Amino acid sequence: MMRLFVAISLPDQVRWQLRLLCGGLPTTKWVPPENFHITLRFLGELDGRDLDYVDAALAGIRAPTFTLRLAEVGHFASGGRVKTVWAGVAKEPALTHLHDKVESAVVRAGLPPEGQNYRPHVTLAHPKDPPPHKLQQYLAMHNLFRSESFEVTHFTLFSSHIGSETPIYHAERSYDLSSNLVRYAAQR
């Protein structure tokens, strides 16, 4: 069994820009820059046969390359507690299109539908009860964050291995997007 997810890797220069956001919030576990990514779909634990089905379905996806930019910093909360601090993704129809294709592919491969709205982001940190005023200061200081634009040319199937401190992600397979496909097709 392997714990898997499908994601977009970030170029080194964008990771470096994100790394500059990592600090200044007490009681927070920051994600290491090598783990920054934009999740398209969390798959969970899969055995070899299910992995083969998912791999074949993902390999069949045809979508154009596109450009992304990260924009703003925010947080997710649950039960009144902040669980995740993130960098958002500027609206890009091609990203939603790719997410929908990945979702359809993994459902065709036999996985249940994800069943929640897609909110693309890069997880920066997992705070543990940060003082509310410190969280507000952090968000106010970084809410105008904008990364440089970057080209998305592929997406990747990652495995996640729980280490002693942080998970270790390993790229199992990458799937190329096509620069030959018409970009406006992503807006259909």
* Coarse shape: globular
- For the record, the CATH architecture stands as Alpha-Beta Complex
Strand order of the largest sheet: 3-1-9-10
Radius of gyration based on Cα positions:
17 Å
CATH class: Alpha Beta
Report the end-to-end length measured between terminal Cα atoms.
37 Å
- Average pLDDT for all residues: 93
* SS elements, strand count: 10
Low-pLDDT windows of residues: 184-188
Describe this structure in words.
Helices cover 25% and strands 38% of the residues. The longest helix has 16 residues, at 93-108. The strands form 3 sheets. Strands 3-1-9-10 form a 4-stranded antiparallel sheet, covered by helices on one side. The protein has a 4-stranded antiparallel sheet with strand order 2-7-6-5, with no helix packed on it. The protein has one domain: Cyclic Phosphodiesterase, Chain: A (Alpha-Beta Complex). The radius of gyration is 17 Å and the shape is globular. The protein has helices at residues 12-19, 48-59, 93-108, 132-142, and strands spanning 2-9, 28-30, 37-46, 66-68, 70-78, 81-89, 121-127, 150-152, 154-162, 167-176.
